[in-house]
Fold:
Amino acid sequence: MLTDENELVYNPYAFAVHDDPYSTYERLREEAPAYWNPDLRFWVLSRFDDVLEAFRDFDTFSSAGGVALENRRRIDQVNTENQQMIELDPPDHTQFRKLVSRVFTGRRVAAMEAEIRTIVNHYLDTVIEAGSCDLVDDITGPFPMDVISSILGIPVEDREALRHEADRLLIRNDGSIEMPPEAAEGFFGLLNYFIEDLPKRRAGERDGLITELLDLEVDGRALTEAELLGFCTLFVIAGHETTTKMVANTIELLSRNPEQRRRLIDDPTQAAATIEEVLRFHNSTQYMHRTLTRDIEMHDQKMCEGDSVLLLIGAANHDPREFGPTAGDFDISRRPDRHLGFGYGAHFCLGAALARMEGKVAVEEIHRRIGDYEVDHDAKVRFHSGNVTGWSHLPITFTPGARLS
Structure:
């Protein structure tokens, strides 16, 4: 049986320093499908059907106690007026989401494809003649912030500083459940930016999604200032960091699977399917935290009201019960009916369409322009975080090319 000495089960933050945690996930699914960590006091659900049902059953598996283990809190002590959208349960979440969805539409995302392509190619242009770069520092890190900033209406000169604060917010120390001072500073840096930004928008100095939300009312409901500030910080963090890691994870995986990279280069229409397989195989978000609102029993284990539960997305997305005997293989030709890379149900990721668009465009352009890249696997560095996994540095070399005219 699994024991507390198993680092990945004992300490979920250890994921960030492991190249292949999925063998541990496999043992977890088979030997302890409802695992209790007595020291950090949380349950782990790791089978696909269990995680899927927990996402569906928001009445039992509540988001109100926080969606990250380090931010968990008692539900009866939560002030919903200060909660971010991701930490609300229906019906409050439904109302909030309905309001935001009125302006952040699929049509708006689809109309951005050409702009996203221009942004990605701008960053490729800055490295194309050198024949080498750090993929994260030079391409996958900055371009999602430009996309998010364009949507929100954030000036170009402010974007690098915002990206720096978003990066700092997700930093965690190995083996510690506490948010380090640098991460707290990153959060307040983002929050203070938007506190100073809102008066400029009310004065008509800036446009974009934030300005539209200021003026929007649906069914007699408008966002409070606290809700708007929470949405802005969440949108920047979620939209920037997960896409940064998703695209870098894609390149790193393809570098170790040359036959699949060749298929993608030969047939660029495979880009969307490639991103979908990365979302399944090595999703940038590995777990979500929920709090039980009642006593339940799962896999012969009694789980009590108020207990913390980690929904282990990474393990669920490798479950052979759902994905068959090749669940542990990376295969861009796979066409799963469903995966949990963007969650499920009421909390299905609001930015899923945008992330998929950004990923598809970035993968297309990288393989069109520098498709012979080689990753320096000895020099790559994992991002150290709680539930976000990917690369902080991914050095690559490629044949120097010409800038786009």
